[in-house]
């Protein structure tokens, strides 16, 4: 009976998210009881939503992670021991396995993943990011060929898929990013029509240049100054999908939103959504997404950190914008 | 061939809306040509939306009123001369007749109104206010029995009907008003469950007291500080219907809206709407509204100004909140 490593959350963040909030512990590897199985994780996913799970705020849509417990995360791995009728040793499985090398589970929320799908693709496209992009774009954004879509966090795991799906649907797609490298990637590799670098561009002028006919769909992943600039350019009957507000996850003083007059004048729809409400249709969303992937219309890049302990510093990359592609940890 | 009086818009407002923006003119009464008829107006409706029609802003959902032309308004009156096959002398008709004693029309947008319906009721309930309330509440607000609804401008022409319809549907209804007199009216006469006087109450504390389980539907007629207080109390899957922003119609520096984080956390829907998009289903909306009126569930009060010239100072009552009930001018 061996041991494995896990990382507990031990402190709430107060503005900075780094290793000081966590503690590495060593645990004894358990034996699965009846109806349980043991997963050896291969990759853990790091997602912006995790920062929300760590806060003291209890007024959220998903329970916070309690101090002294394993940090919550999704991941992919292999079943290495099983007393569960539906999961066999050798199965590739995805689930909320947390920041640990081994996870014991009764199968709740665990899905098998075809072993032909590489784990990096599974986490980048068919897990939370791809499901979020698909649900948000098609469930709330009502994209129509010929319209203009702006997506913030456009080089991120959700935004990059939103933009590619919208391109495939015939929309003009503008991405908001935080570096010229990311701007180049979404234009040259992903086929976006244009990019705004919010750190250096004059936001309004650049949007006027790239979206001269205004904006029909805004997919909001970040909040911050770009929000006002896009909002002011929304067309009549425009739709805004509010998916993430990364600029405010760690802010003590969230900045105000735009005045609502334009909501009336342009009869805008603004819809907030989070994936936990829609996880029951994960299979349906994966089926919707698969043909785009098969046609080569959805590319991804994985930003892979090495080793369990790298997770502790990894989340801060979302705040600095230094992640390049879907962030994950290889164990 | 006699003459009649009309009021032209001659100046754009810069913060204040009063008689200085208008000019009374005398016109020769025309004879209706083929396909036309002449209406002698009995009452003109004054509505908050008219302030939007007067601004220099051309980026609106309805064309602005050009300087030197008759101020736009809806009204009710009697056909006094007709060369139109569908309208006969003596018919009671409602339409966009403008600020004038007589109106020549080809019938576009003009509806006949059963002469059993008093003109004050027609303008208060079956015209713009009632249609707006019905479309906004049922088309965007998705009210469900047992839920809590907050409506701002609750003693106004739209808000008072929204609240009464919601009460009839079994919701808990809280109205936001600007005087104790209005608070008493909506509670004692209209049957609201509670009232917030935004001019004197501690908005947050009062809302916590009146809506202890939070707010499911917010019907926004005013903007201003109440917006943030209600927004912060919206429940999961709450709906916000943005119908009016009277606090900002004449403001040079509209105040910002709330930060959007709550839109995600509570998966809120925010829908802007204006009646011109829905006027094609006016008949359907009137039919939806009629049974509530017949059952005595929709009461109204008319605030009647006397004489054409009183319109020029009348709109400012919306800004001071001194109107009591549906504002209209008797000619």
Give a topology summary.
The structure is a homodimer of 331-residue chains.
Chain A: E1 3-9, E2 22-28, E3 37-45, H1 49-53, E4 69-70, E5 75-82, E6 92-95, E7 102-105, E8 111-112, H2 119-126, H3 128-141, E9 148-152, H4 157-168, E10 172-177, H5 180-189, E11 194-197, H6 203-210, E12 215-220, H7 225-231, E13 234-242, H8 261-265, E14 269-272, H9 282-294, E15 302-306, H10 311-314, H11 316-320, E16 326-330
Parallel strand pairs in A: 9-10, 9-12, 10-11, 12-13, 13-14, 15-16
Antiparallel strand pairs in A: 1-2, 1-4, 3-5, 3-7, 3-16, 5-6, 6-8
Characterization of the model:
Chain A is of the alpha/beta class. Chain A folds into 2 domains: 3-116 and 301-330, Alpha-Beta Complex (Quinone Oxidoreductase, Chain A, domain 1); 128-276, Rossmann fold (3-Layer(aba) Sandwich), CATH 3.40.50. Chain A has 11 helices and 16 strands. Chain A has helices at residues 49-53, 119-126, 128-141, 157-168, 180-189, 203-210, 225-231, 261-265, 282-294, 311-314, 316-320, and strands spanning 3-9, 22-28, 37-45, 69-70, 75-82, 92-95, 102-105, 111-112, 148-152, 172-177, 194-197, 215-220, 234-242, 269-272, 302-306, 326-330. In chain A, strand 13, helix 8 and strand 14 form a beta-alpha-beta unit. In chain A, helix 2 runs parallel beside helix 3 (128-141) and helix 3 packs across helix 9 (282-294). The longest helix of chain A has 14 residues, at 128-141. In chain A, 50% of the residues are buried. The mean pLDDT of chain A is 93. Strand 14 of chain A pairs antiparallel with strand 14 of chain B, so a sheet runs across the interface.
